[in-house]
Each structure stands twice: as structure tokens, then as C-alpha cells.
Design a protein that fits this description.
Blueprint (H helix, E strand, L loop, with lengths): L1 H9 L6 H16 L6 H7 L19 H14 L19 H10 L4 H12 L8 H13 L3 H13 L4 H7 L5 H17 L3 H13 L6 H14 L2 H13 L6 H13 L3 H13 L6 H13 L3 H14 L5 H13 L3 H13 L6 H13 L3 H5 L1 H7 L6 H13 L3 H13 L6 H13 L3 H13 L6 H13 L3 H14 L5 H13 L3 H13 L6 H13 L3 H13 L6 H13 L3 H10 L9 H13 L3 H13 L6 H13 L3 H14 L5 H13 L3 H13 L6 H7 L5 H15 L1
Helix pairs in contact: 5-7, 7-8, 7-9, 7-10, 8-10, 10-11, 10-12, 11-12, 12-13, 12-14, 13-14, 14-15, 14-16, 15-16, 16-17, 16-18, 17-18, 18-19, 18-20, 19-20, 20-23, 23-24, 23-25, 24-25, 25-26, 25-27, 26-27, 27-28, 29-30, 29-31, 31-32, 31-33, 33-34, 33-35, 34-35, 35-36, 35-37, 36-37, 37-38, 37-39, ...
Protein name: Pentatricopeptide repeat-containing protein
Keywords: Repeat
Pfam families: PPR_1, PPR_2
Length: 733
């Protein structure tokens, strides 16, 4: 003990004598169980008092247990109150002392990165005790410093380990209410991503009942989850509560509810909601109309659906193949092929190009009537219009042959689609299995079910239902029971939408590896890539700047039989624009028509923005005029992009001309529109006009944000900006 006595003596005059001696004593006991004590151990205890904290004095692996244990010791030395009642605990047990960890985290609130490392270390140790208060403490540290991605991970852990009590602790005021709302909004977002409707409703209800209002985006996400789960009654209740607590619905809110009602066949309720939203000053957009047309078409109300298309055209809304296809599908579903063809001609005359889905719909209508030979006549039309028949095309024809009892022809198509590098889906197999069962060929049906498993496609509940019914039809009850038991043993699998949503979320967070892992899992469970999933990947990878990887994916996409669409092209065009390759972006844009693709308002807007911001206004004007000539209405983002470029070039007169056009014809200017013009006027020292715009936006009910104030007051010293904002509010008010 001589060494320890000397060490104790050396710190006798220091502030925390008693605490340091105890720490040395217990460190010695701890170390004696592990290894001989060395001078470095003593040096560490005095490190807090050393001005030079170089690694020469103390060097240790920053991922080791010793590192974190010693970090806690140092926290106690720096702030003795951190020890609390934990002074006599061995360092090996620090991770299991929840109260100690909470005090340490609170003592290092200014070091969020270190706090997160410490939390992760403790959670990964055996014996760690899950505590609602500990989770809330680390979330408090992370959120107040803006570490939202890290906070997202912690909230995911809360959901994963099933600690719903965290919600109550946050609501009860354990942390600042602003922090609580941000964390609870994160929790809602994660619950919606996991499609956990029950937990979404629990968090939502507790928040609003305690005055912590979720943002409208999360409310919309909850409505989406409820729609996907078919909980229409719950969706109505959430909408009612939003109104009760003053959460202003957006067009997304209404469109999600409308989609819910239409999916449930409650079209009249959807139409009533449209009337309500208009009374509240929220007017239908293209999505609104498309949802209603889809709902009406599925209910067989074709005249009303067609009337809405006329209404869209009269209002100048963009009418696309997505508008017409549901009505065409409705006609085909009901055998009204003449009406479907007439509508398709009208669609093309209006500038909306038929998609592969349009052609597949016609093929479906013919096959449903048993006219498979006539359906085949659409095959060359598809190729002529630069489309490649996809899995839906083949599934439609396979279904047609199976309806005719021609399972052999269906099997030949199965081999052909593989030859074309298409992957058969569970629908493909289910259709053929159903055809075989109806012919009484149960053994062939079983073999095909086994084959789909061998090819990485999991039979779903419909597969087994078909097999059970097929067995029952021929009286083979033992085999029916065998399939039924197998179905129960396997359980239900996540659907395509669930996987796609998760993949999109992982890509948004930048985790490409995880997204690919999910895609591989998706494929193994019977969900081959489709156009949507490819576009999700292409868009996500492009946003991360990995253009080479995006092009490799495009090659695979084409190899799998899919043709890049306007969403795919727009994603890649945007990526090139963001890295300054404007010429390459323009080449891709001009390539789209040759691929049978029509650029959308988004495509034009990204091009206009990129050229305008660089001062290449002649090209920006060209694209702006071209889109209007093609009947593609510019939106507020399009106008803002053009006006921003004009203001940067100090051409305010032209910017004001577009501003006037917006106010007269729409779209309605937003806060970014006003901020752009305010900034342009300030650059030209037009203070009075900037002030006029500021007042105008307030009168229009548009709330300025920090960017608006920064533009308005950018020439002022920062010490005077707060007073200037207050002064502005007084004189404008």
C-alpha cells in the first residue's frame, strides 16, 4: 500500500481529498482483481488537474471497457455530485447503475457525441438495466444539440425493447416541453415507418391530451398507416381530433383520407369530404382528382369519373395516364372495351401518353373475355411504343390461358418470361397453381409450389388457400390439412409496400447497405423488384451522389425487363445537375421522348432551377415556355426557381412580372416567393419595397421564417437584428 499512500499524500491539499482517496482505494481493489497496479492508474486519477492532457500521460483504447469506466471516474472527479450513492460501486458494474449513468450523462450535456458513445457502450454490456429515465436523458442531450439522426436511433431502440413508459416520462415533464415534442414526433415517425398502428394511436392520443401537439406531417403519416391497415374508423377519429386541437389539415391529409374512403368503397363519403375541404379553403389538386376517379371507377360510376376528368381539364390541372388508367381499367373490368379504346384515344389526343399499364389493362380486358388471341395482338403495339412487356403483361396472359383451362400454354409463358430475364412473382405462380388445381392436377400444383420455394419465392396465404380449396374440390382432405398446417407454420410475410417503405427510409438515412439487405430479403420472400422499388433505389442512390452505382442499377433494371420511366430519369437528371454536369442532364432530358416518356413538372422544375441559379436564364426561359406549351402547369417551386435566378441577376422587373402572373393565375405565392423578392430588393437597396412585401406576406397570412428575416436584415449587425425584427412587427402591424 506504500504506492497508494504516497499517491494519497500527493493530493492531500487538493479540493476533493476524501473523494480522490476513496477513488484510489477502490480503484486499487478493482485493479488487484484484474492486474497489478501501475503508475498510469494513479496518473489517470490526477489527469483532471493536469493542464497537458496528452496521450503520453494516459493512453487507452477508446472502445474498451476501461476507457468508459475511467471516463465515469473522471466525471466523478470533475463533478463530485455525479457519484451520488454510487461511490462504492466497482467500475465493472458502472454500466448496470442506471442512476449513475443518468447523472454522468447530465454532467456531460455539452458533449453529445461522448454521451451517445457512453450510452451505446452501457447498453451493449450484459446486466444493463433498461430505464425510461435513462433513455429520456440521452434523448434530451442529443435533441438539444440537434443530433436528430442519433436521437432517431435511440427512439428506435425504445420501440425495439418495448419501453412505452418513455412516452409517459416525456409527457410528465422530465425534459423541456420543446424537446419532448421533438422526441415524441420522432417516435411517431418511427411507429408509422414500422406500420405500428396501435402504438401510433397511443402516442398520438397521449400527446394531444397533454397539449403536446404533433406536427401535421406525422398526423398525415398516422392516417397513411391507418389507411394501409384498413382502420377507416380510427382514421376518422384522428381527423376529428386534429380539428378539435387546432392541427390544420393539409391537402395531404385530405388526399390520404379520400384514398382511405375510396379503398373501402365509400365514394360518397369521399365526395362529402371534398366539399368540406373546399369550404375550409383547401382546394383539390391532381392527386385529389386521381384518387376520386380511381374510387369512382372501381365502384362502376364511370360517368362521374369521366366528369371529373373534364373538370380537371377545365381547371388546367395536369391530366396524365395515371388519371385515365383507372377509368380504362374500370371499363375493361366491366367488358366495356369499346369505351376503353375511345378513352385511350382521347387520352393521347390530350397529350397524355399510354403507359405499359394502359396496354396491360387492355390485354386484361380481352383475356377476361376469353379473347387471349386478341390480347396477343397488343404485343407488337407495346414494343412499337418503346415498352418492354413486363411481369404484369405475362401474368395477364397466363391468367387468360388458365381461364381457358390451358395450363400448358401458361407453363410455356412461365419459361419464356424467365428467358427474358423476368422474375416470376407469387401472383404468377398462384395463377398457374390455381389453373392446375381447377384441372385437378394437384401433384403438378404441389411441384410448382415447391419450385417457387426453390427459386426464392415464398408462397403466401393465397397460395395455400388455392391449394387447400383445390384439394377439397377433389375430396383429398389429408392433403388439404397438410397444406393448411404448412401455411400456419410459415405465418404471414411482410408485403411489398412495407419493404419498399423501409428501403426508402434506409436510403434517406444514407444506409445503402441496409437497404440492399432488405431488398435481398424482399426477393427471398417472394417480392421481386418492380418499377417502384427500382425508382426508390435509383432516387435514393442518386441523392447520395453515387451516380456510378445508380447506372449499374439501371443496367440491372433493364436486364430484369423494366424500362426506366420519367421518375427514374428525373432522379438521374437531378443528380447530374447537382454536381454541375448540365450538358449531360440536358442530354438525358432530350432522350426521354425517344423512350416514350413525357417529362413532368418536376423534371422541368429541376432543370429550370439549375440553369437559373447559374445565370443561364435563356435556357431556364426555354424550359419554362416549353412546359407550358405542352400543357404542364408550372407550380410554385417552378416560379420560385425562375424568380430566384432573375433576382440574382438583378432583373427584378421580370421577376415581378412572374410574381404578378402567379397572383392572377396561380399558383399562390408562398413564403419562399416573398423571401426571394425581399432579398432581391435589399440587394438593390430598395428597403421600402422590401418592407412593402414583408407587410403583404403578413396580410396574406404567410408567416415569415428565419430566412425571410435574414434576407430583410442581412446588412444589419447581428446585435441589432432582434430589435429590428421587433421594430418591423410594430411598424408593419
Amino acid at each position: 500500500m506504500t504506492l497508494y499512500a504516497k499517491a494519497s499524500k500527493s493530493i492531500i491539499s487538493r479540493k476533493y481529498l476524501k473523494l480522490q482517496v476513496k477513488l484510489i482505494f477502490f480503484a486499487s481493489i478493482h485493479q488487484s482483481h484484474c492486474r497489478p497496479v501501475c503508475l498510469d492508474d494513479i496518473a489517470y486519477l490526477n489527469i483532471v488537474n493536469c493542464k497537458d492532457m496528452s496521450p503520453v500521460i494516459y493512453s487507452i483504447n477508446k472502445h474498451s471497457d476501461s476507457y468508459f469506466q475511467n471516463f465515469i471516474l473522471r466525471a466523478i472527479l470533475e463533478k463530485p455530485y455525479v457519484a451520488g450513492n454510487s461511490l462504492w460501486i466497482f467500475p465493472d458494474h458502472y454500466h448496470a447503475d442506471t442512476e449513475l449513468l443518468i447523472r454522468v450523462l447530465n454532467s456531460i450535456q455539452e458533449k453529445p457525441k461522448m454521451a451517445l458513445k457512453l450510452f451505446r457502450w452501457a447498453e451493449g454490456k450484459p446486466g444493463f438495466k433498461y430505464s425510461e429515465f435513462l433513455f429520456c436523458t440521452i434523448l434530451d442531450v442529443l435533441v438539444q444539440h440537434g443530433f436528430m439522426k442519433s436521437a432517431y436511433w435511440v427512439v428506435e431502440r425504445v420501440v425495439s425493447v418495448n419501453l412505452p413508459g418513455v412516452i409517459d416520462v416525456l409527457i410528465d415533464g422530465y425534459v423541456n416541453s420543446k424537446i419532448s415534442v421533438k422526441v415524441l414526433d420522432l417516435a411517431l415517425w418511427i411507429c408509422t415507418k414500422k406500420e405500428n398502428a396501435e402504438l401510433c394511436l397511443l402516442v398520438f392520443d397521449k400527446m394531444v391530451r397533454n397539449g403536446l401537439l404533433p406536427n401535421v406531417k406525422n398526423c398525415n403519416r398516422i392516417l397513411r398507416v391507418l389507411r394501409n391497415r384498413g382502420f377507416i374508423g380510427k382514421a376518422r377519429e384522428v381527423y376529428r381530433i386534429m380539428g378539435e386541437f387546432g392541427i390544420q389539415p393539409t391537402i395531404v391529409t385530405y388526399n390520404t383520407l379520400l384514398d382511405s374512403f375510396c379503398k373501402e368503397g365509400k365514394v360518397q363519403e369521399a365526395l362529402d369530404l371534398v366539399s368540406e375541404m373546399q369550404r375550409r379553403g383547401c382546394y383539390p389538386n391532381g392527386v385529389t382528382y386521381n384518387v376520386l376517379i380511381n374510387g369512382l371507377s372501381k365502384k362502376g360510376k364511370f360517368a362521374q369519373a369521366k366528369g371529373l376528368i373534364r373538370e380537371m381539364l377545365n381547371k388546367g390541372l395536369t391530366v396524365s395516364s395515371y388519371t385515365y388508367n383507372p377509368l380504362i381499367s374500370g371499363y375493361c373490368e366491366n367488358g366495356m372495351l369499346v369505351e376503353a379504346l375511345d378513352l385511350a384515344k382521347e387520352m393521347e389526343m390530350g397529350g397524355a401518353s399510354p403507359t405499359l399499364s394502359t396496354y396491360n389493362t387492355f390485354m386484361y380486358g380481352l383475356c377476361k373475355q376469353g379473347r387471349v388471341a386478341d390480347a396477343w395482338q397488343w404485343y407488337p403495339v407495346v414494343l412499337k411504343n418503346n415498352f418492354v412487356p413486363d411481369i404484369v403483361s405475362y401474368n395477364t396472359l397466363i391468367s387468360g390461358y388458365c381461364r381457358l383451362g390451358n395450363a400448358r400454354a401458361a407453363m410455356l409463358l412461365l419459361h419464356e418470361l424467365r428467358h427474358r430475364n423476368l422474375i416470376p412473382t407469387v401472383v404468377t405462380y398462384n395463377t398457374i397453381i390455381d389453373g392446375l388445381c381447377k384441372l385437378g392436377n394437384l401433384e403438378d400444383a404441389r411441384k410448382l409450389k415447391d419450385e417457387m420455394v426453390d427459386n426464392g419465392i415464398s408462397p403466401d396465404v393465397y397460395t395455400y388457400t388455392i391449394l387447400v380449396n383445390g384439394c377439397c374440390r377433389v375430396g383429398n382432405l389429408p392433403m388439404a390439412k397438410e397444406f393448411f398446417d404448412e401455411m400456419l407454420h410459415k405465418g404471414l410475410q411482410p408485403d411489398r409496400f412495407a419493404y419498399t417503405t423501409r428501403i426508402a427510409g434506409e436510403l434517406k438515412l444514407g444506409d445503402i447497405s441496409k437497404a440492399w439487405t432488405l431488398q435481398e430479403e424482399m426477393l427471398a420472400k417472394g417480392f421481386p423488384p418492380d418499377m417502384i422499388i427500382y425508382n426508390v433505389f435509383v432516387g435514393g442512390i442518386c441523392k447520395l451522389g453515387n451516380l456510378d452505382e445508380a447506372y449499374e442499377l439501371l443496367k440491372k433494371m433493364v436486364c430484369d425487363g423494366f424500362v426506366p420511366d420519367h421518375v427514374t430519369y428525373t432522379s438521374i437528371i437531378l443528380a447530374y445537375l447537382e454536381i454541375g454536369h448540365l450538358r449531360k442532364a440536358r442530354e438525358l432530358f432530350h432522350e426521354m421522348p425517344s423512350k416514350g416518356l413525357s417529362p413532368t413538372v418536376v423534371t422541368y422544375t429541376v432543370l429550370i432551377h439549375a440553369h437559373a441559379v447559374l445565370g443561364r436564364l435563356h435556357l431556364a426561359f426555354m424550359y419554362f415556355s416549353e412546359m407550358k406549351e405542352k400543357g404542364i402547369l408550372p407550380n410554385v417551386i417552378t416560379y420560385n426557381a425562375l424568380m430566384n435566378g432573375l433576382c440574382k441577376c438583378k432583373r427584378l422587373d421580370q421577376a415581378y412580372a412572374y410574381f404578378t402572373e402567379m397572383k392572377e393565375k396561380g399558383p399562390v405565392p408562398n413564403k419562399y416567393t416573398y423571401t426571394i423578392l425581399i432579398n432581391g430588393n435589399i440587394d438593390l437597396d430598395n428597403w421600402s419595397e422590401a418592407l412593402h412585401l414583408y407587410k403583404e406576406m403578413l396580410d396574406a397570412g404567410i408567416q415569415p421564417d428565419s430566412c425571410t428575416y435574414s434576407a430583410l436584415l442581412k446588412d444589419l449587425n447581428k446585435d441589432y437584428k432582434l430589435y429590428a425584427v421587433q421594430y418591423l412587427d410594430r411598424i408593419v402591424g
